[in-house]
Amino acid sequence: MTTTRTGASRRTLLLGAAGAGLAVPYAARAQGQYRPEYKLSVVGNRPIPFAEGAFQWAELVTERSGGRINVKVYPGSQLVGGDQTRELVAMRQGVIDFGVFSTINIAPQVRELGLFQLPFLMPDHKAFDALIRGEVGRDMFGLMERREVVPLAWGENGFREVSNSKHAIRTPADMRGLKIRFAAGAIFNDIYAAMGANPVQMSFADLQPALSTGAVDGQENPINLFLAFRMDTLAQKHLTVWNYVNDPLIFALSRTVWNSFNDADKQLVRDCAEEAGRNQIALTRRGLGLDGGDDSSIRDLRARGVEVTMLTAQEKAAFATATRPAYDKWAQTVGADLVRKAEAAIRAATA
Asked: What string of H, E and C letters represents the secondary structure of 70-104?
């Protein structure tokens, strides 16, 4: 009787487990591949486009898989204590399953991604697109794959503009003495030091209180983020549009997780990443007045009392000259051949 009851109990447990896992493909259940939840890490939170892209990716995957691949977003880089520079390492360690990474935050671990931080390399969005959509972008994805990470799609954080609480910035001399926060990467220290500023590395989580207390005078971030976090209320009354760098976003997941999916689900996850990436890029560029179009974000800045300084090509050239030593130094770290390839792609796209 004991054997019979035990057999019945086992059958009951198996039936219960099967019923709970009906949404999971048989092959996945048999191999124990699919988890109840996959963790996606991203800096910030909605409504900034950076985070919106991550949420859209998670929602698309969860919905289109019928819940078989349940992706939950952990915003604010909370899985790594708010330190976005640790996200790539955390993914390789298995703490993070999916991620939407800024190249700025992971360039310290993947030096070639520092290409996108070379000051004034990319004059406009055509140049930016030429890099992420061409051979350079494919090279970057190959470098990521060597680190047990599977990159699936590009996004865009946006051209980074500089703001401060003191005065308008129109020449390199205007930067002298200003305490400017940067997110990560020693190259930014060199860029701002070359103009006589006092650069301060700081996580995004610490930026807002630092601005509100005056611990730093200014910061550099895309306009959409400036607006979303109302940095005009944090004494940031002067913003210069100089487009000195634009950091792409990479939609990626760990190779361990990727390998656990069947081929159909791999394609589903990739398709969703590409769709979310396209949507995210469109959100990032909205309102910037590109090609004479919608300039609502610029008008919003001015309506909030922010002095917006739009640099001419000649004025940008002065900043490029001042920061050229940093460009040349870090081009060697990035890789001279890769930099030349990028410069050639940009010339072809902007000719």
From this structure: CEEEECCCHHHCCCHHHHHHHHHCCCCCEEEEEHH
Q: How large is the angle between the packed helices 324-334 and 336-350, nearest 10 degrees?
A: 120
Question: pLDDT for 152-195, tens place per residue?
Answer: 999 999 999 999 999 999 999 999 999 999 988 899 999 999 99
- Please name which of 259, 205, 170 lies closest in space to residue 84, comparing C-alpha atoms: 205
Q: How far apart are CA 239 and CA 168, in angstroms?
A: 7
Distance of CA 320 to the CA centre of its chain: 24
Separation between Cα atoms, residue 134 and residue 78, nearest integer Å: 33
Q: What is the pTM of this model?
A: 0.87
Could you tell me if 34 and 67 are in contact, meaning their C-beta atoms sit under 8 angstroms apart? Answer: no
Burial of 332 (0-12, 13-18, 19+ CB in 10 A): exposed
For residues 204, 207, 209, 214, the Cα torsion angle rounded to the nearest 10 degrees is 180
Strands (E), the chain: 38-41, 71-74, 98-102, 149-159, 161-164, 179-182, 198-201, 218-221, 238-241, 246-254, 307-310
Q: How many CA atoms lie within 13 A of 345 on its CB side?
A: 23
Check whether 5 has a pLDDT greater than 90. Answer: no
Amino acid occupying residue 60: L
59: enclosing H helix or E strand: helix 49-64
Distance CA 251, CA 263 (A): 18
Number of helical H runs and strand E runs in the chain: 16, 11
Residues forming a β-bridge with 159: 246
CA atoms within 13 A on the CB side of 232: 16
Amino acid present at 50: F
Length reported for the chain: 351
The DSSP element (H or E) to which 338 belongs, if any, is helix 336-350
DSSP string, 222-283: -HHHHHHTTGGGGT--EEEE----EEEEEEEEEHHHHHHS-HHHHHHHHHHHHHHHHHHHHH
CB neighbours of residue 216 within 10 Å: 21
